[in-house]
């Protein structure tokens, strides 16, 4: 029986997407060949890549607005350095809201001056800083929209004259935003889009070509855009599954429809965390993530009982990241409201038992 999968990443994908992907590994669309044995330059795969790229722009509302979508490799972590390689000439600003921001800052420092415009590190990243200034001489300001490990999410983005770059690995396609406020968005596929191995980069073309350094071809956004994301062999399976997931989302009604479900899931878990005296939320209330809910037990003595109960209920992947401890319920797009209901029932059962 399929488990209720709260894993943080890689994580749950729509069941019908996985079924179609499994079929395509055996035979793609009755062509007598597997998806993973055909040339990436075949007309079949070129059509898959084109569709994945255009669906990404369409769902984000960025079609015809001067943006390009490309699928790269190396994970979101490769983007930590690629962003700086392509955009950082003098000085960049970073909002430090978690482990991933911190790693992005470390890479950017190899290329130029980095100012941390604000940081929540000294509170173990349990909140999103507000009311910080943004110098107007930055090459760009980098934010992490959702802090996967700590369970915080940026609810409103700074209005600034400098280009905005955002790591949306763990909440892309989950909520409505004016995506045109960003100049570059990147996201590793393995949280809301597909299997590990592909990273979506959406970039405004006018942003590129401004740094004076030479950029190796594989790390140059312009090269990948010019070659329509086929400069070298792309991760064909990962891109195919991303395409299927984006099509699934479009058929469902796009981001507005999934946002509605995601808000219901978040409301359900957070109201249980707040009402049940056995649990404590980790993140500052107004900064809580709709994707990753982090919480701990008020009494660690109940750990073994609770762990046995949720495992018995068919729940997977609830352990918190080691830097926070406790629990993390990751509720990506493909996780159903029903699965969150199962978890909430276990939490209230524990209260009845204890
Ligand atoms: C998971 C994650 C990353 C790292 O992604 P990789 O693909 O493993 O490099 C970066 N940023 C955020 C916000 C993440 O959730």
**What Rg do the Cα atoms give?**
21 Å
For this structure, what is the CATH class of the largest domain?
Alpha Beta
Task: Give unreliable regions as ranges.
Answer: none
For the record, the CATH architecture of the largest domain stands as: 3-Layer(aba) Sandwich
Beta-strand share of residues: 15-25%
Give, in order, the helices and strands: EHHEHEHEEEEEEEHHHEEHEEH
Q: Could you characterize what this model shows?
A:
- With 354 residues, the protein is of the alpha/beta class.
- The protein folds into two domains: 15-252, 3-Layer(aba) Sandwich (Aspartate Aminotransferase, domain 2), CATH 3.40.640.10; 254-353, Aspartate Aminotransferase, domain 1 (Alpha-Beta Complex), CATH 3.90.1150.
- It has nine helices and 14 strands.
- It has helices at 15-26, 43-59, 75-87, 99-108, 221-226, 236-252, 254-275, 303-312, 337-353, and strands at 4-5, 67-72, 91-96, 113-119, 141-144, 146-147, 152-153, 164-167, 184-188, 199-204, 279-281, 292-297, 315-316, 327-330.
- The longest helix has 22 residues, at 254-275.
- The structure holds pyridoxal-5'-phosphate (PLP).
